[in-house]
Amino acid sequence: MTTDLVIGAVEAIAMILLGLSLCVLVLWFDRKGSALIQDRVGANRASITGIGARLGLPNFGLINTLIADPLKLFTKEDFVPDGADKFLHTLAPFLALFPVMITFVVIPFGDTMTIGGHTFQLQAANLNVGVLYVLATIGIGVYGIALAGWASNNRWSLLGAIRASAQMISYEIAMGLAIIAVVIAYGTLDLQEICRAQGGVWFGWLPRWGIFVQPVGFLLLLTAGLAESKRVPFDLPETESELIQGYFTEYSGGKQAVFMLTDLAEHTMIVMLLVTFFFGGWQVPWLYRDGLHLPGAHAIALNHLVVSVVGILAFLVKVVLLSLFLGTLRWTLPRFRYDQLMRLGWKGLVPLGLANVLATAFVVVVSGGAQ
Amino acid sequence: MVPLTYMMSLSSAIFAIGVAGMLLRRNILIMFMSIELMLNAVNLAFIALGTELGSMDGQAIVFFAMTVAAAEAAVGLAIIIASFRNRETVHADDLTMLKW
Amino acid sequence: MQLALFWFLAALAILSALGVIAQRNPIHCLLSLVVTLLTIGVLFIVEGAVVVGFLQIIVYAGAIMVLFLFVIWLLNLPVEIGPTGHLALKFFGSVGAAALAAEILVFVLPPHLQVRLSAPPPGYGSIDSLAQKLFSEYLVAFEVTSVLLLAAVVGAVALARRMPGSGAEVRAAGAQAAPGADQV
Fold it and tell me: Among A91, A143, A162, which would you mutate to test the C interface (most chain C Cβ atoms within 10 Å of its Cβ)?
């Protein structure tokens, strides 16, 4: 019992750190990747002792992203605006970041691992209602945004906060409907079971990933997830070209860094959910617990530990690729106007989600039970 | 295993706090929040008794109570907004138009 | 272990419930209520009602309280200053609430209730058993609840709508301009 607790705690910390590291990756892609897409150079000035330039390497902006910017943000003056609610102003960034970070602990990043005769799940919290937990934490995430805008004593921040929270609660419904369709298709609320059910192949070559079972659900969750995490093309609450920074205008220094981290962490959370529900999580095609079963060839037996590690690596690769894809979306699509955004959420995604749920339920009942 | 007494005492304490809030505060929204406190205290009692008896009835009742509370919150807040538009106050002592 | 968790959660619930009724800023009261609801949700999970506990967090703390928050914003409620209500009401109100609590405690404190009778059956609190109950025994209540929600949505929209042509629009614009001016 205590060993399980310790393993769970270690896995939870590892997952949260992994999530934060992926945030840094997204941030770096926002700098250099966007520069690549927009045909410019991007950040290329910061370096430590000029070692890269001496070796003739181009500057990849890593020092800029990893060291210079965080250092600048955390050493800036931290103020509370005049007449603002001091307690709420300080509480809001952490209230925004906390729910996103605790969502990472239910994402399965591997199957099982056996070390020293002790088998443990590669998922920090083996909840059998993992999907409900995810929906709950996404619901709590509204408060940080709302209080940030309110506590700033600035009517423009309040306007940004109202828009942001209305957007978030509208797209929570679309997200919930997309996730419900996946749950109906797989018959379980446990995220690890959903990943396990996506193993195997059809016709010998097509992996049984969720995206082939629920294509509409994938598009729904992608759109709703982007809107929920307020990334472009749905970033009107914090448009950097219109509302300065919307609901966190009056924040500077460390608290602003926390808000930006929240933005990136939500992006990473949505990517991890998409990978878990629609891309098989840690599943690799043709890789089963005892080894590779390639079509037409005999099975290659592999050590169980190797299989687990390959699963973890597959999860990381999928998350990174999907993260970069969503990051590319940011620099490709123009943003939605607010009424277009709300219309899309309520009149477009919610009916589509309901139709998807009905169709999925119909197919599941007709084919006699969940897959 | 938490003994039933503890849960029921907690539930009654929160209920009493809700009643106190209802009587002491005159701001309509705070009174509404006290009603929500009372509803939640009763939900807690239902769940505790359901677990005590091993029956899922308690949870089903709480499910319905939650849904009804959501509906009631929506309509109640709409009423408060409509009355605020006409009276410009949320102080319950100022809403005396029906007094004779 | 579970008992220690219960004591912590109970203390948190009572403190935040007192915070709801005692604080002067409506937003602080709302946040205290959110903490209370989250704590009660976790208590549901401790009692074994896992699905209902998460539903409490999703529905109550995640949706209904956001609704409250929006209303407090739209009404732009000020922080209350000075005493509110009559002193006699406060005195008798507190006494009455304490008497109510004592009366209920008389029912729950007898020693034969101080132990757990038996462990709940397996599968208790899972979504399977909840769905079994809802769709067999309580099916009519379930369907009626969905109609109730529809009625609530229609009613809320109809009540909070601004009637075109009445003076409410001008007064609402005036009300929004005045608080906005003293906010900055």
Answer: A143
Residue A350: predicted pLDDT: 94
CB contact under 8 A, B73 and C119: no
Kindly list the averaged pLDDT for each block of 10 residues, start to end, along chain C of length 184. Answer: 89 95 89 95 92 94 91 80 71 86 82 68 85 91 95 91 62 47 43
CA distance A81 to A93: 15
Q: Which of residues 27-56 of C touch A (CB under 8 A)?
A: 27-28, 31, 34, 38, 50-51, 54-55
Q: Do chains A and B touch (3 or more CB pairs under 8 A)?
A: no
Cis peptide, bond prior to residue A233, ω within 30 of zero: yes
Q: A315-365, pLDDT tens digit by residue?
A: 999 999 999 999 888 888 888 888 888 999 899 999 999 999 999 999 999
Express each pLDDT in A104-143 by its tens digit: 999 998 888 877 777 778 888 888 899 999 999 999 999 9
State which residues of chain B have pLDDT below 50: none
Work out the percent of chain A whose per-residue pLDDT is above 90. Answer: 28
Under 8 Å CB-to-CB from A100, ≥6 apart: which residues?
Answer: A137, A141, A262, A265, A266, A269
Chains touching chain B at 3 or more Cβ pairs under 8 angstroms?
A: C
**Which chain B residues are within 8 Å of C37, Cβ to Cβ?**
36, 40
Token pair in block for residue C167: 């003076």
One-letter amino acid of A222: L
In CATH, the architecture of C2-137 is Up-down Bundle (1.20)
CATH architecture of B4-94: Orthogonal Bundle (1.10)
Distance from CA of B22 to the nearest CA of C (A): 8
Token pair 């446990």 is found at: A190
C90–B24 C-beta distance less than 8 A: yes
State whether C149 and B66 contact (CB < 8 Å): no
**Structure token pair of residue A208:** 């049984």
Spans of all domains in chain C? 2-137, 138-184
Q: What pTM does this model have? A: 0.89
CA distance A59 to A55: 11
Chains touching C (at least 3 CB pairs under 8 A) are A, B
Nearest-CA distance C159 → chain A (Å): 20
> ipTM above 0.90?
yes
Spans of all domains in chain B: 4-94
Local structure of A112: helix, strand or coil: strand
Name residues whose C-beta falls within 8 Å of residue C91's C-beta, 6 or more positions apart in sequence.
Answer: none
| Residue C79: closest C-alpha in chain B | B27
| pLDDT at residue number C115 | 64
Q: Measured between CA atoms, how close is B89 to chain C, in angstroms?
A: 9
